[in-house]
Amino acid sequence: MIKPQITSQLQKLETPFYYYDLDLLRQTLSKIKEESERYGIHVHYAVKANANDDILRTIFDFGFGADCVSGNEISKAVQLRLPGSKIAFAGVGKTDKEINTALTNNIFSFNCESLPELEVINELASKMQRVAPVAIRINPNVDPKTHKYITTGLDENKFGINHWDFDKLSRLLKHLPNIKLTGIHFHIGSQITDINVFKELSEKVNTIAAWFEKQGLNLQHINVGGGLGIDYEQPEQNPFSDFTAYFKAFNDHLNLKSGQELHVELGRSVVGQCGHLITKVLYVKEGLKTKFLITDAGMTELIRPMLYQAEHKISNLSSQLALQTYDVVGPICESTDVFAKGIQLPESKRGDLLAIHSAGAYGEAMASGYNLRDMVKAFHSDQLLKHESLF
Ligand code: LLP
After folding, report:
1. Are 160 and 153 in contact (CB under 8 A)?
2. Which residues are near ligand 1 (CB < 6 Å)?
3. For the segment 14-61, what is each residue's pLDDT rounded down to a tens digit?
4. Which residues have C-beta within 8 Å of that of residue 384, sequence separation ≥ 6?
5. Do residues 377 and 18 lie in contact, with contact meaning Cβ atoms separated by under 8 Å?
6. How far apart are CA 317 and CA 10, in angstroms?
7. In the predicted model, what is the mean pLDDT of residues 377-385?
8. Distance in Å, CA 165 to ligand 1 centroid
9. DSSP single-letter state for residue 365
């Protein structure tokens, strides 16, 4: 829900742009903090979901760590004063340069995704005369029951080390002096709305952790990744994911040894609902079977509907007329540049402001300059409420 005093401010800004409600973000962070602290669970924010500086500052101010997937994400987190000891670093294709950045910043953990990567980290750490803390990312073959493009923990996916490599892994780990095994890591997918999936993951994790211990490989921490989904259909009614059930599922089903830490890496459920893409209607056009609302935002600003068939709720902030059926489409020269088909909106006209909701995660972060378009800008509630000088 965008507050009325904000709507009047939004109207003065050049579209398209992202609008972030930092109050909602802070409320979300408070809930996550309360629920995770109940069980002593460590939360890393998945920077890839939204790397906007003000969003990151707000999140780090709450004491959360970061889950990074590139050297630049690590550098950005460090630049915003996050200590390296709170940074986990995942990714199937870490470059030598990125590994060196991570080593220099003494990160918490390399979440290592393959046997050859382990050898490279060992070699680079040895050159710097350091010992790299490594958690093995494991592909547990658990179905997250989500879109196939955001499924990562099945045998056929490229992520993590699979069970058929475990014996080799155990032998290799004993021969790499510049690697210290500190934990195991999992991330099975994103936009997971069935809490039972996390229960199933926990049970797999228990079996795998027991195997490591049996090999004499001690695990200081277990990292179960991210994946908790948000409600795209009814964001106003459900602005917060069910953090209570999420953390409880791990607490109830994971067999942690005494002193063993549990880490999670949440992205979407932290920032998803606080962001809206604000766009103007450029033209209303009669199609063969439908009316098109052509907006000044397109797949360059928010690619989720085009890439994952995601359905983001859309509202018209300027009209309260009777409902009509529209296809809301962007201006890009691609037929897939469609935000929504056959949706009901108040009768809309050129110049009306539309808000595409639940766009805080993987929205701005996945924006591009295709068609030589300007990179999308972003504003947040603190700026709009406190700094009139913006206008
Ligand atoms: N940890 C790792 C290792 C990840 O790869 C991801 C997300 C996360 C944590 C955070 O997951 P979350 O809590 O946000 O579900 N662009 C797609 C989502 C890609 C997710 C990639 N990995 C989308 O817009 O739906």
Report:
1. yes
2. 46, 48-49, 67, 90, 150, 187, 190-191, 225-228, 265-269, 304, 308, 361-362
3. 999 999 999 999 999 999 999 999 999 999 999 999 999 999 999 999
4. 6, 9, 10, 19, 390
5. yes
6. 10
7. 93
8. 25
9. G
Q: Which of 36, 44, 48, 197 has most ligand 1 atoms within 8 Å of its beta carbon, as the pocket-test mutant?
A: 48
Structure tokens at 228: 């908790």
Q: Where are the alpha helices (DSSP H) in 62-155?
A: 71-79, 96-104, 115-127
Q: Kindly report the protein residue whose alpha carbon is nearest to atom 19 of ligand 1.
A: 150
Q: Whose CA is closest to 361, among 58, 52, 30?
A: 52
Domains annotated for the chain, with CATH where assigned, are 23-270 (3.20.20.10), 273-385 (2.40.37.10)
CA–centroid distance, 70 to ligand 1, in Å, is 14
329-344 average pLDDT score: 97
Please give the DSSP secondary-structure letter assigned to residue 163. Answer: G
| pLDDT score of 391 more than 50 | no
- Residue 361's pLDDT band, with cuts at 50, 70 and 90, is very high
**Centre of ligand 1 from the C-alpha of residue 232, in Å:** 16
Q: Which ligand 1 atom is the nearest neighbour of the CA of 185?
A: 3
Task: Report the candidate in 274, 348, 264, 272 with the shortest Cα–Cα distance to residue 310.
Answer: 272
